[in-house]
Amino acid sequence: MKIAFIGLGNMGGPMALNLHKAGHDVGAFDLSKPACDKLAEGGVRIAADAGTCVLGAEVVISMLPASQHVEALYLGNDKQPGLLPQLAEGALVIDCSTIAAATSRKVADTAKARGLAFIDAPVSGGTGGAIAGTLTFMVGGDTAALERARPILEKMGANIFHAGSVGAGQTAKICNNMLLGILMAGTSEAIALGVANGLDPKVLSEIMRRSSGGNWALEKYNPMPGVMETAPASKGYAGGFGTDLMLKDLGLAQENAAAVKAATPLGGLARNLYAAHSLAGHGGLDFSSIIKMMQKG
Amino acid sequence: MKIAFIGLGNMGGPMALNLHKAGHDVGAFDLSKPACDKLAEGGVRIAADAGTCVLGAEVVISMLPASQHVEALYLGNDKQPGLLPQLAEGALVIDCSTIAAATSRKVADTAKARGLAFIDAPVSGGTGGAIAGTLTFMVGGDTAALERARPILEKMGANIFHAGSVGAGQTAKICNNMLLGILMAGTSEAIALGVANGLDPKVLSEIMRRSSGGNWALEKYNPMPGVMETAPASKGYAGGFGTDLMLKDLGLAQENAAAVKAATPLGGLARNLYAAHSLAGHGGLDFSSIIKMMQKG
């Protein structure tokens, strides 16, 4: 299948490579020359620009940093024309970026008017999951479009959830990541409180993991250095999911909550905690480093 | 073994009954006559008062509402003498109440001076676990005392964790319950945000359960009515663990945090959310009803 892949960063790069390895005819593009060069080394055909990239493609996949990039790519702005008018008739657009649900719906509406199918399919699983092809996709869109996308998504991920109509993938992702931000900070507080009382963080973590405090952070991603060898906490908080990325997702959750008048008191506080953590210079560290805020410096 | 059991409420009652059923010689007492009558119906011998109850007992178990009750029982106050001087030489005291760790240590110190062994062994698992004998005990105290207590605790519970020295059981319990309060409120926010965006709460819950938002609430105790048949949410928030009990535990966590100068921003906010929920008249409902605060009335 002829696939155009736009956005070759830490996530998009390995995702495009997995599609190439699976035998698809992948053409790729990124504004960053080094990102393109890396993919070219892997044997992926690099296009001269985004417009050239999508010519004749049956499927267009995008993996971009934020709402404005996705909107500019497909709908255009005062500096560039949008891609949608250039896509082949009946093409399927899969946007894997984590952006505002409203932007997904806006692009989907324009795509539909042109007879194109669109799904939003943001991912979780990090760069490790992107490389291993074990990402989780949270998909918004109609069932027919999802079924067209499924064989392609399966080359990049291990779990595919159908969250609802267009935009629902984004909503599921920000709900999940808001909860993740809360439970990582909450787990950090609980462990730090125990340690301040003289408890062994390993013993306390194990007790809570097997009790009603059990959660993904205690299971896979303990924020306290030394408790879990494989966690970023035990590697100086390198790799993993950066504080600034968590801050971005918590910001999207708050924007969304404001738009629908939802009450998210812990989500709002969590965003401010990660913002303060980023201001303190830890934006590049894994988000589990939030426990530093609860420890003596 | 001759056991004195003091405090026969919703938790202590069934715990004492399980020890009686296991063949121990249980003498029991509670200030509430109906609580005593209920145990008497189960065949448990009821003592005239706490002092009579503990006479000659090898093990004394207490399950009381709060720190001041435990302190008054063992150390006495201006209205009553403490029990410790009346205990048989070498007796083991097991306090299962959820109280301040500092109170546990205070009672343990006096017990030690009298040659008595003491452990704090607060529980989780609720009234269902107390009746079924499947409680989780979080134990603080030395290993020798815990090993003496173990065969007795095993008659009332399924999991026994050794958290550390005296008081550590209390600390582990409040750390766990603070985290539980945070993750239940956080899970409620995330589900409510998704629903406000048109997502199906069952679909969203399942996506988050299997993703990095996964936690005990999504696994066993979903706060949204109709998602999980067996959860209190699907039974009008009856039964389960009351909002006022969660509020008490979150208050203990904040007292402790203040004493050791720990930072617990989400724990502090969670306490205030449950306090507001209680003020709104929901103190008697299961604590997962906190989701009402995030829903249209």
Protein model, in words:
The structure is a homodimer. Chain A is an alpha/beta fold and about 300 residues long. Chain A folds into two domains: about 160 residues, NAD(P)-binding Rossmann-like Domain (Rossmann fold, 3-Layer(aba) Sandwich); about 120 residues, N-(1-d-carboxylethyl)-l-norvaline Dehydrogenase, domain 2, CATH 1.10.1040. Chain A is about 50% helix and about 15% strand. Chain A has a six-stranded parallel sheet, with helices on both faces. In chain A, α4 runs parallel beside α5 and α8 crosses α11. The radius of gyration of chain A is 20 Å and the shape is elongated. Chains A and B meet through β9, α8, α9, α10 and α11 of A and β9, α8, α9, α10 and α11 of B.
Radius of gyration of chain A: 20 Å
Task: Describe the global form of chain A.
Answer: elongated
CATH level 1 name of the largest domain in chain A: Alpha Beta
Oligomer: homodimer
The two chains with the largest interface, and their residue counts, are:
A-B, 68 and 68 residues
Q: H/E element string of chain A?
A: EHEHEHEHEHEEHEHEHHHHH
- Indicate the CATH topology of the largest domain in chain A: Rossmann fold
- The tally of structural domains of chain A comes to 2
Strand order in the sheet with the most strands of chain A: 3-2-1-4-5-6
